[in-house]
Amino acid sequence: GEDVEQSLFLSVREGDSSVINCTYTDSSSTYLYWYKQEPGAGLQLLTYIFSNMDMKQDQRLTVLLNKKDKHLSLRIADTQTGDSAIYFCALKGFQKLVFGTGTRLLVSP
Amino acid sequence: SAVISQKPSRDICQRGTSLTIQCQVDSQVTMMFWYRQQPGQSLTLIATANQGSEATYESGFVIDKFPISRPNLTFSTLTVSNMSPEDSSIYLCSVEGTSGIGETQYFGPGTRLLVL
Questions:
Q1: Contacts of B48 in chain A (CB under 8 A)
Q2: Which site from A61, A90, B47, B48 is most exposed, i.e. has the minimal number of CB atoms within 10 Å?
Q3: How many CB atoms lie within 10 A of CB B51?
Q4: How far is A8 from B42, CA to CA, in rounded Å?
């Protein structure tokens, strides 16, 4: 099956950029997603990218997809304390999503 | 995007009992899913809830333990049967919808279950 890996933890200072990385094994995914989970809450869809794209920008969020290296990243510009959460990448396989292991982002003032 | 609500939002249950979780969507959707998120873990798909037919379960999950109903295109229930402490998790309902250029999957707020 698909393996989707993320680093466990990232700590940044407010105002800096954050880059959260995701690597995967199956290259057949059509859509790749980033979700945010705040403490005690469900999952919020942040953004997604279609597999034939290399980059997508949405306000402070930039998604980069390197299909050759099977690497997906999420860059958050001007990171704020409200961005502190767990971030999951997810890949759309055959009719189902496969989630990464999650990265806990801590933003300090 | 779809608006999804779940009931209850949290519960504390005794081992050996069962709990039914409800999921309501504000629009008709074809695909509804149930996920489990164990403490400190990622999400695992339990099953796909099919309208008018039996749910499709993922490997490691069975109907006797997690019976699912899908009576119409806006509602589904998941029952966690004969609970044990290992069932303590967040259970999330999810639906698939379109957002202009493609398919996206939206999640409910989750049901936090603690089994004593």
A1: 95-96
A2: A61
A3: 16
A4: 11
Whether A50 sits inside 8 A of B101 (CB atoms) is yes
Tokens of B16: 């050996």
- Among the partner residues B44, B92, B104, nearest to A45 by beta-carbon distance: B104
DSSP character string of A24-55: ES-TT-SEEEEEEE-TT--EEEEEEEETT-SE
B98 pLDDT band (50/70/90 cuts)? Answer: low
Contact A41 B110 (CB under 8 A): yes
Give the model's pLDDT for residue B54.
Answer: 87
- Identify all chain B residues contacting A90, using CB atoms and an 8 Å cutoff: 105
The strand pairing partners of B114, in sequence order, are B12
Which residue in the block uniquely carries the two structure tokens 């504390």? Answer: B12
Structure token digits, residue A41: 């809450």
Q: Which residue among B43, B102, B106 places its CB closest to the CB of A31?
A: B102
8 A C-beta contact, residue B9 and residue B21 = no
Q: What is the pLDDT of residues B10-57, one digit of tens each?
A: 999 999 999 999 999 998 888 899 999 998 889 999 999 988 888 999
